[in-house]
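Everyone, carefully examine this protein record:
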Amino acid sequence: MNRPLAVDGAPGAPSAATSSRNYALLILSLINLVNYLDRYIVTVALPYIKRDFQLDNTQAGMLGSFFMVVFMLASPICGFLGDRMPRRYLVAAGVLLWSLATGASGLATTFAALMVARACVGIGEAGYGAVAPSIISDLYPREQRTRVLSFFYIAIPVGAAAGYGLGGWLSASYSWHVAFFAGGVPGLVLGALAFFMPEPERGAMDGPEAQQKLPFLVGLKGLAHNPAFWWTT
């Protein structure tokens, strides 16, 4: 059973609930930042990787493509697991996996080993990315979600810029191996902290109707008639 964030009528309960959900928002936003920092460290380190492993352009391009394919294939599986287990554990495990894999990328001595490490990063990112927005949605009422999700998503450009800056400086001043080590350390800390996030009840902020699971084909049919989704996509 999930423990509620606050007990109605208990002294100090509202502030405790607010602190708990703000803690989760902070951790998830920082994870999102580190996520994109890691992605763009690879981008800026690629010329150095290409030089050391004597790669042609096709091989160098495969590094990013392989990561995205694995990420794409793992995301539905992680989404399935996220509906059936505590999501904070899936987030924490995913972040720890990708952080260890990022560190392992720095240890790679062959291109094949680097490809395997980046594949593991894709699996870890899928575990986090598939469920993090749903946790935030279940922690905050509808009238606050746009604002809190903006904090979560602004971490993407900030993390990307940090990845370019940090990855470029470390790769040029030391080596691309060091850049990967630096990218993996923050995730290990944040992955450990994710275990202590609250686990909100699914649909807790949307009323009783949100507790009912929508059949897959029914949801797919509804999505087909959602013009906002198609315009955005």
